[in-house]
Amino acid sequence: APRIFISYRTSDGVDKATALARDLDAAFGAEQVFIDKDDLPAGLPWREAVGSTLEQRPALLLLVTPDTFGARDAQGQRRIDDPLDPVRREAEAALAAGAHLIPLLADGVEALPEGEAMPAPLAPLAERTWRRLRAYDWRDDVERLVADLEALGIARVQALHDRRGSDRRRWLEPALALGLGIVIGAAAMRQWDASAEADPLVNASSAARA
Asked: What is the C-alpha to C-alpha distance for residues 69 and 75, in angstroms, rounded to an integer?
């Protein structure tokens, strides 16, 4: 199951969310990173698929762009105030499940809204430690985020490879040692046989027993 879930507002966050997913794929492996545009199974209701993923309590990265809390619908109402708003539903589900939620403040966002400026279920976000994700300092910001995710116990690709290699060595090394012992033993027997054939006393003793 994915260990990292990226939530974003499509109106102004899709490019940055896609770039973030690509970099996290490189660090942790694509199977550990969920972004809806790439990872929603075909033919399933998207709300059901997203809900099922969030039930696994992945770390949720909430990409906070200007539209995350500022976007409005055709009636002029804030989209985040709609209980069916996808961004709100994802953040609510993560908070309700006790998942680790990290707000990522993108360019144009200086701080999270105050608690009273959010829908009540999202008010706890105001107390969360956030990180920045800026275009001009992208590499450093992503590396800082990767370190945060490692601290949560999410293994990087190299660590997974090293662990698998260690597991292979755990059973391979005794097998190699046993094989080497057999080869050395066989070589010693051949050497002994060759010495016996060359030794006249051994040959005479063998002839007497024949």
From this structure: 16
Q: Could you give the C-alpha distances from 95 to 27, 58, 79, 116, 121, in angstroms and in order? A: 25, 11, 19, 17, 8
pLDDT surpassing 80 at residue 137: yes
Residue 186 has pLDDT above 80, yes or no: no
Q: What is the value of pTM for the model shown?
A: 0.73
The answer to whether 114 and 73 have CB atoms below 8 angstroms apart is no
DSSP 150-171: HHTTPPPHHHHHHHHHHHHHHH
Element of type H or E holding 10:
helix 10-28
Nearest of 113, 130, 55 to residue 89 by alpha carbon: 55
Q: Which of 37, 127, 109 lies closest to 66, judged by CA?
A: 109
Please tell me the predicted confidence (pLDDT) of residue 66: 97
Band (pLDDT 50/70/90 cuts) for residue 204 is very low
Residue 166, classified by CB atoms within 10 Å of its CB into exposed (0-12), middle (13-18) or buried (19+), is exposed
> Residue 44 corresponds to which tokens in the numbers above?
């399933």
Residue in the block written with tokens 């360019």: 107
Contact 61, 20 (CB under 8 A): yes
- Residue 36 and residue 89 in contact, taking contact as beta carbons nearer than 8 Å: no
